[in-house]
Specification:
By secondary structure, this protein is of the alpha/beta class. The protein has a single domain, classed as Phosphatidylinositol (PI) phosphodiesterase (TIM Barrel), CATH 3.20.20.190. The chain has 10 helices and 9 strands. Strands 1, 2, 3, 4, 5, 6, 7, 8 and 9 form a 9-stranded mixed beta sheet that branches. Helix 2 (29-38) runs parallel beside helix 4 (102-112). The radius of gyration is 18 Å and the shape is globular. The chain starts with a helix and ends with a helix. The mean pLDDT is 96.
Length: 267
């Protein structure tokens, strides 16, 4: 049984969700720094664009939930976004954290000396405003080219035309389709092929043995989100997540999943 689990988890990658967002304020430099220190394979993060066209890292389309600021990101300049405290709501010890730009996160990774960790960039759109602003993919790509980071990212979105557009702009970039109950496609494999995506990223609860078999049979990895319970991660491994290069589990607590992976892969 142990040997079988080792085989199933042989390619399993672990990504920190919004950095290590269970341990530090989500989508902040501190959360990303912590994830790197833990030894993650990648870091998932959420991209929005300010009124003056700067790509910033924040999940919601407003500042309201995660910071002490107010307003829609697309209505604010970078300077206005930077005035908001993005740490205190998580814990007073993180007072003074700011919403980072994509460039700042890449600089952090480069300064860490970690040559392995990848960035998983989720392009976000406000509900009812999918695909706006129209040039978001081009702006993201411009940052990646300026920082020579094109080969170390994946790009994904719940709005599937977005990763398809990124693939057209830069075929080298790995792209994925985020899927939840609300945007579940009739046929996952057909949707992946239609969008020329490289992987399928469903909510963990949607993953079945049949889905794993079908996608893996076509050479398509699965990226499962968001798993914080090691037992749930083991369930996914039992189903075959981790047996194909590119298979990934995303977690707010990557330390827990890294410990689980070590236990599964131990001789």
């Amino acid at each position: 049984m142990a040997g079988d689990m080792r085989k199933k988890a042989g390619f399993l990658a672990v990504q920190g969700h919004r950095g290590a967002s269970g341990l530090a304020p989500e989508n902040t430099l501190t959360a990303f720094r912590k994830a790197i220190e833990l030894g993650v394979d990648g870091m998932e993060m959420d991209l929005q664009v300010t009124r003056d066209g700067v790509v910033v890292i924040i999940h919601d389309d407003t500042l309201d939930r995660t910071t002490d600021g107010r307003g829609r990101v697309t209505d604010l300049t970078l300077d206005e976004v930077k005035q908001a405290d993005a740490g205190t709501k998580f814990a007073p010890a993180f007072h003074g954290e700011r919403v980072p730009t994509l460039s700042e996160v890449i600089t952090l990774v480069q300064a860490s000396g970690d040559q392995r960790v990848r960035l998983n960039l989720e392009i976000k759109f406000g509900e009812g405003r999918e695909g706006q602003p129209e040039d978001v993919e081009a702006r993201v790509l411009a940052v990646l080219r300026e920082t020579s980071f094109v080969d170390r990212v994946t790009v994904q979105s719940f709005h599937h035309p977005s990763p398809a557009k990124m693939k057209t702009l830069e075929p080298r970039i790995t792209t994925g389709l985020l899927v939840g109950q609300r945007n579940l496609p009739p046929d996952p494999l057909d949707r992946v092929r239609e969008c020329r995506a490289d992987y399928y990223a469903p909510a963990a609860s949607l993953i079945t043995a049949e889905l794993v078999s079908r996608l893996h049979g076509a050479g398509i990895p699965l990226v499962a989100w968001t798993v914080n319970d090691p037992d749930e991660a083991r369930r996914l491994v039992e189903l075959g997540v981790g047996s194909l290069q590119g298979d990934t589990i995303i977690s707010d607590y990557p330390d827990r999943l890294l410990d689980m992976r070590r236990s599964l892969q131990a001789p």
